Structure formats: C-alpha cells, structure tokens
C-alpha cells in the first residue's frame, strides 16, 4: 500500500511573480527540507486557489491530511481572512502566518483569526521549517514514520568553517579543504540572510573586476559546483548546496555561523 502523503498549503501571491527571487528561494528551500518528512506542497497564488485546494480535500474526505498552511502573503488582511476560513473548515490544521509587525493589536488580530504561530520580516528557510515542526508537534500532528528524514536524521549540530574558512567541516567532523573560488562561493551563500544567493550576487562577489563575468559566470559556477560535488563525494559527503531552478544557490542544512577557527 502506498504511504499516505500529507500536505502543506503555501499561500504566497509572489510565487506567480518571476521577479520575486527571494520568495522563490524561500519556498524552494523549505520544500527541500519538509518533503523529506512526507509533506507534499500545494502552491497557491491567490485566495481562491487556497479555498479550492481546501474544498477538494474536504470533498475527498482528506482534509485531515492537510497538516499545515503557511500564509506568506504580504497582505495581512488576506492572511487573516484565509486563516479564519481554514480554521472553520479544518480546525486541526496548523496555521503559520507572516505579520507586518509584532504590535499587540496586530498579533491579537492574527490569533483571533485562528493563526497558531507568526513571524515578521525576513526569516531563514531553516527557521520557518523549525517553526512549522514546533507548532505541528504542539498540535499533536505526528509526521510520517517512514521518511527519507528518518534514514538521514538532521544532526543536533551543523556545518562550520575551519582554518579561516579555507576548509569546511561536516556535522560528523569530516574536513574538506577549499580553493579561493570555492571559499568565496560558499562564504557568499551562507552570509546571505536566508543562505540563498542569486547568480548575480555570486558573480559580483567572485569576479567583481571581470568585464564579461556575467556572460560566462554561470558556466564557471556550474563547473565549480561539479568539482565541489566530486570533492565532497570523495570524502563520503553530499555537497550541502542546491541549485534553485535558475535563480541561484542555497546552502541546505544547519550551519554554525561565524566559526572560522
């Protein structure tokens, strides 16, 4: 019998905007992490899509399979309206919403609409994943027992730099030495607020004085990524960097910041 696939509804109108690299990067990063735990994603770019997704699940008597809904919309009023509706039709769903600020009136409005947890401003993919898991646990929503994540559990500690960032150390202590370009590449990614860097940002950091860098920069990064993968593979490691579908690259997994000893 095929294992039941649980669902996460992600409401973010910016996902339909090709120019919204930050929104695209965040959803892709969280998706990489949560799909390991058996959560299927349903992307909704407008309120009608959210309601339709919920009604399909209700009609199929599978609303209990919807474990969480992330309200990433910048329009706080729409977030509250969606939360109020979902709380009525699916009382057990975990609702996490973005708020414009942490003012008491704003948070009261969110909580009264049925929101379980909230955040404001820019957050990292790892923080958002942790927030979702925390609220799902609090609501008694167990995750599937047979998952990729169980086979490869997340460590209690993370990756870190060593030797003034001329080497990177895996959570289990394996050390990989880096060339100057590889060092700059990884440093640039992890120093971004959400550990996601666009191609243009990486090219500007790696080859700032090259006139035609942008023309050949992506190809040079592809070659660098290929060599890095092989270098990590020889150490029995998987490179903790993922390509973001033409937008750039993301560091995947826990990282211990500012450790360069």
UniProtKB/TrEMBL annotation:
InterPro entries: OmpR/PhoB-type_DNA-bd, Sig_transdc_resp-reg_C-effctor, WH-like_DNA-bd_sf. Pfam families: Trans_reg_C. It comes from the Bacteria. Keywords: DNA-binding. Coiled coil: none annotated. Residues 173-251 form the OmpR/PhoB-type domain. This is OmpR/PhoB-type domain-containing protein. It comes from Neopusillimonas maritima. The lineage of its organism: Bacteria, Pseudomonadati, Pseudomonadota, Betaproteobacteria, Burkholderiales.
């Amino acid at each position: 019998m095929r294992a039941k696939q649980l669902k996460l509804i992600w409401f973010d109108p910016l996902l339909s905007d090709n120019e919204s690299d930050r929104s695209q990067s965040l959803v892709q990063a969280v998706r990489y992490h949560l799909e390991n735990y058996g959560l299927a994603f349903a992307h909704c770019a407008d309120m009608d899509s959210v309601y339709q997704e919920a009604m399909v699940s209700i009609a199929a008597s599978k609303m209990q399979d919807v474990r969480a809904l992330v309200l990433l919309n910048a329009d706080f009023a729409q977030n509250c309206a969606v939360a109020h509706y979902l709380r009525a039709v699916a009382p057990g769903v975990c609702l996490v919403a973005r708020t414009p600020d942490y003012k008491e009136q704003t948070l009261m409005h969110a909580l009264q609409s049925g929101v379980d947890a909230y955040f404001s401003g820019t957050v990292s993919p790892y923080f958002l994943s942790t927030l979702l898991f925390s609220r799902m646990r609090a609501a008694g929503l167990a995750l599937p027992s047979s998952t990729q994540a169980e086979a490869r559990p997340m460590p209690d500690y993370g990756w870190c730099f060593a030797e003034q960032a001329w080497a990177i150390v895996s959570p289990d202590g394996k050390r990989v030495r880096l060339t100057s370009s590889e060092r700059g590449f990884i440093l640039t990614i992890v120093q971004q607020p959400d550990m996601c860097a666009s191609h243009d940002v990486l090219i500007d950091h790696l080859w700032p004085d090259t006139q035609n860098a942008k023309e050949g920069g992506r190809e040079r990064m592809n070659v660098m990524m290929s060599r890095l993968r092989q270098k990590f593979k020889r150490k029995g490691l998987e490179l903790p960097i993922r390509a973001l579908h033409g937008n750039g690259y993301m560091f995947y997994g826990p990282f211990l910041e500012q450790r360069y000893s």
